Amino acid sequence: MAQRLKHVDVVTIGVGLTGSLTALELAKAGLTVVGLERGAPRFTVPDFQSPAVHDELRFSIRKAMMQDNVKEAITFRNSSDETALPIRRWASFLPGTGLGGSFVHWNGQTFRFQVADFIYKSHIEQRYGKKILDPDLTIQDWGVTYSELEPHYDRFEYLLGTSGKAGNIKGAIQPGGNPLEAPRAREYPTPPMKEPYFGALFRKGAESLGYHPYPQPSSNLSQPYTNPEGLALQQCVFCGFCERYACEHYAKASPQTVILPVLLKNPNYELRTNSQVLRINLDGTGKKATGVTYADATGREFEQPADLVLITAFPLNNVRMLLLSGIGTPYDPKTGKGVVGRNYTYQTTGGATVFLDEGINVNPFMASGANGTMIDDFSGDNFDHGQLGFIGGQYIGAIMTGGRPIEFHPTPDGTPKWGLKWKQAVARHYNHAVLIQQHGTSTASRLNYLSLDPTYRDAWGLPLLQMTFDFPENDIRMSQYIADKVVEIGRAMGGKSVTRGGTKRPYNTTVYQSTHNCGGAIMGEDPKTSVVNRYMQCWDVPNVFSIGASAFPQNGTYNYTGTIGALTYWAIDAIKNQYLKAPGPLVHA
Amino acid sequence: MTDLTRRFMLKATGAIGVSLVSAGSGVAAATAQESDASSSGAMRAGPNAQVSTYLFLNKDESSFVEAAVARLIPEDDQWPGALKAGIPNYIDKQLAGAWGVGERLYRSGPWQPGTPAQGYQLPFTPAELFRISIDAINKELSQAGTPFSAMSPKQQDAYLARLETGGKDLGGVPSNVFFAHLWECTIEGFFSDPVYGGNRDMVAWRMIGFPGAYASYYDLVDQHGIKINRAPMSIGEGPHGGMHVNPGIPAKLP
């Protein structure tokens, strides 16, 4: 029997980016908030310190900061006619765990989506007609527009101190920035990072082909910065241990650096770590949540009553929490009816390795997580798709996040996989190769979805999340088209040999691709095709909000953290300014 | 001069362990690096060197592992290979430790074969997988008359290539699955920090020019094309160049 605890106004399920940011704003507004985090507490000092943090084996290979899949795995299959089996070791994507969530081990790549992304279906149909869409594709508009989100993007970037160069301020193109970006109200909070050699080489090659290179926006800061919460960030020192690592230098924006020191001092807030939420409790009507039930580290169960429940976990776990709690109708791929789990999307990634002359010392280990140089000429709908037979696009960039050698020891095509020739090729090429990434849209399909697994269970006896996913043919055509452009840039950079990338089917969970898992609890204007309304409030249970990338109807070109931050502020404003004044549905279907 | 001594002296002379050469004088820099390389490559085991004490592998298993990794990353006249890099020691410590018994490996059934896209689906922990596979290999080869370690390098390469191709059952483990584990561990033992018992004398890092666990390149990152002539640095290295082992990691240092 769960012990019943004292009532609070708000409970957040998860204390990462969305959980800490919502708690910060709602505690400031005078509400009592409890944050339930399944993982351990951890802080820059003493937990993220050198030299131990510079351990590639522990963090990159053994994945020390990730969800413990001994306890909680996810099952996977490419299509509904296969049996889903557990992903027994993380590889393709890496959900974080612990205080701060995945917003601790992220790379700091901080983008905005494009204007067209938020009205994707309307935009594509208007520009190309309905025929360009394969019949299986289920893309949708978001229900919120870029211009509505712009102030929230701005606010999020200033919370993080993001380093970059504006390319478009209120419609005026700015030299040095990305001329193809959506218009922004003002400059980035801090200037771009220094450009490493690999970026300079890419810039030269891309410019020679007439493209528009720009410095990647980074939340590993180019200079010291104090955010509006009064929290200070330091200058990034390019240590090369960012992706999959916590930052020892206070240089990467994370809950630990830009949110928690203020939040944890607020008397309205209580953080409880090692607290695994098992379900959201509903009253007899099934239309109102009464709180959550969770287990502490010893397995004891507690009931935490709350007026407002915010699901603020990793996107995949947001969807699982809805399914475990019986909120919303699960999606049925046979009939196309139901919504929870529908429109699960991912990210198309890949790229090329450009092998350079031995006289060119790239020094890939001098890097931050977001110091790339890149182009948007093939992002989203920035180019005419009329004759191409696909929708969507990718950014292309030299984005090297370090030279950590267990993972990075490239050899040209045709090199033996092991033995003396392999070893000699590794020695020859390690410091003379540049990776170019292609990274872009993932189109929703009626065939791809999330559900509860009928067989496999977690350490608490609850069903694992089941993922059914393969890349739609549309996305393969798109990615292969861009792979050719990447090779051309690699040659223009002086590549003696350039490998060719691009996505292929089937999607394979054994190779790292991206941790940008999206959708499954998508936002929209119609409860028949969305789980949450435009404020990420559940249609079926209005005192539950499911916040984060689980709400993306499909994924855009860019790394998604910036858009998650903007959506979170957007939802917070709706809660503070509308919901609290009159609790109930903010949108009437 | 050992590399540790050299680094200490650079520090003592105020060079802070770093010497920079501009891209324009790349020839001189390359020469300097090669001479470093050959001296460390040819460096013999000093008085600090210890023979690996295996915690997990038995004699028959270690004979196979030593002979196999010596072919996967062979020694040449420039750089030591897997044996001098301590890779068998690394593998042994991994199999004896948390990874060997299934750390971060979901281990609930039912067990059934999956598609390649679904990844590893065997019930074996890494320690079980290595033991079962090597046992099957040793049995097969001893029946055939020549254990792996007694084969010629050419025969060994051919045998490893057959394991890699797959289609061979090793006591329930498909040989390509075992080979993939062996190769991944070999790569890890070559390139991981030496606190884990491989990458002895940071030989793999010297070979490729990876400086290791330095905390800052802020002043260097925009000096495009410079040649770094630093000795690499381990996370197990104290402020005065001395090496120490994390007591939580059952590894022996060279």
How are the secondary structure elements laid out?
The complex is a heterodimer of chains A (589) and B (254).
Chain A: E1 3-4, E2 8-13, H1 17-28, E3 33-36, H2 44-47, H3 56-61, E4 74-77, E5 85-86, H4 102-105, H5 120-128, H6 146-160, E6 168-169, E7 172-173, H7 197-208, E8 214-215, E9 225-226, E10 232-233, H8 255-258, H9 260-263, E11 269-272, E12 276-282, E13 289-295, E14 301-311, H10 315-325, E15 348-355, E16 373-375, E17 394-398, H11 420-429, E18 433-440, E19 449-457, E20 463-468, H12 473-492, E21 497-498, E22 544-546, H13 561-579
Parallel strand pairs in A: 1-14, 2-3, 2-14, 3-11, 4-20, 14-22
Antiparallel strand pairs in A: 4-5, 6-7, 8-16, 9-10, 12-13, 13-14, 15-18, 15-21, 16-17, 17-18, 19-20
Helix pairs in contact in A: 1-13, 6-13, 7-12
Chain B: H1 3-12, E1 20-21, H2 26-41, H3 59-72, H4 87-96, H5 126-144, H6 153-165, E2 169-170, E3 173-174, H7 175-191, H8 203-208, E4 227-228
Antiparallel strand pairs in B: 1-4, 2-3
